[in-house]
UniProtKB/TrEMBL annotation:
Residues 7-74 form the HTH gntR-type domain. Pfam families: FCD, GntR. It comes from the Bacteria. InterPro entries: GntR_C, TF_FadR/GntR_C, Tscrpt_reg_HTH_GntR, WH-like_DNA-bd_sf, WH_DNA-bd_sf. This is DNA-binding GntR family transcriptional regulator. It comes from Barrientosiimonas humi. The keyword Ligase does not apply. SUPFAM superfamilies: GntR ligand-binding domain-like (SSF48008), Winged helix' DNA-binding domain (SSF46785). Keywords: DNA-binding, Transcription, Transcription regulation. Gene3D superfamilies: GntR ligand-binding domain-like, Winged helix-like DNA-binding domain superfamily/Winged helix DNA-binding domain.
Amino acid sequence: MPETKQRASTEAVHAALRADLIAGAHAPGERLKFAPLCERYGASVSVVREALTRLEQQGLVESEPRIGFRVRQVSLADLDDLTETRIDLEALAFRRAIDRGDVDWETALVAAHHRLERTEMLTDDDPPQLRDDWEGAHLAFHDALLAGCDRPWLLGMTRTLRDAGEFYRRLSHLQEPGRDVAGEHRGLLEAALARDADEGTRRLREHYERTAAIVRRTLP
């Protein structure tokens, strides 16, 4: 008998489609049709539907009656609301991490920052693009900042907002001349290790507001 090809699981499809959405493989507002998605991810309609439903709950796709699923729309108002909400929740989680994080948290945070600082940020393209390995190190560092927080529900909400923020950030290929991104990350690390929650949350707000300002210039 011919070997039956194993179909992808919901977890695998969710992870792959989420990564594609954040990376900008699908344009904002684009309709997500089942047939090409099933072909692309090697999954059944029911698995793709379940993955899309989870992504809707995470704010990356939208559903409309009798139409189906679309990539989330973007707007200045939504970007501003997302940025402020993300700052509010991450500041709360960062304060908790600074207060409750132990030496293991500090060690992991230093290691994540070391990897980020030693990873080249931009490609040699014209214009330069952010390197994939830098993107991974960047996300790992921001995860490590909050990892000392002992409230799983809060951390779950910050990750959902982070994904939505990444979706916006990757729409923009602009780099702000003179911006010291490495210095911003170093400042976050120093505030965390000094257990200075006020300074840490101030730096976190400035970091996200600068990024939002760059993205804002690319939106209508």
